[in-house]
Amino acid sequence: MGDESKNKVVEESGDRKIGTFESHIDIAARFDLLDFSNASKITGSKFVFLKNEAALLEMALINWSLQKVASKGFTPFTTPDISR
């Protein structure tokens, strides 16, 4: 993992909004869309599990995208989870 404290801003554009706004994390917590604690137990890192409507939205977007590219000739397939 990289050290986030060493990140530097290369460029900024536009005006920063002034005021207090809910973060996406706060909104997701309010609607029970993310699971950080179980994700970190399993992955040991800064990953998150999507749950409830967030998981359904991700699956719907994947399905929509696959249908779009399949209609243009792409052949979707799945692979085994384990290989040599």
Element-by-element helix/strand order: HEHEH
- Order of strands across the biggest sheet? 1-2
* Number of DSSP strand runs: 2
The helix tally amounts to 3
Strand content: under 5%
What is the average per-residue confidence, as pLDDT, rounded to a whole number?
89
Biggest sheet architecture: 2 strands, antiparallel
The percent range for helix content is 25-40%
Shape: extended
Class inferred from helices and paired strands: mainly alpha
Overview of the structural elements:
The protein has a domain of 53 residues. It is mainly α. It is extended. A two-stranded antiparallel sheet has the order 1-2.
Keywords:
84 residues; extended
Itemize the secondary structure elements and their pairings.
Layout: H1 24-30, E1 34-35, H2 36-43, E2 49-50, H3 53-70
Antiparallel strand pairs: 1-2
Summary of the model, kept short:
The chain has 84 residues and is mainly alpha-helical. It is built from three helices and two strands; from the N terminus they run αβαβα.
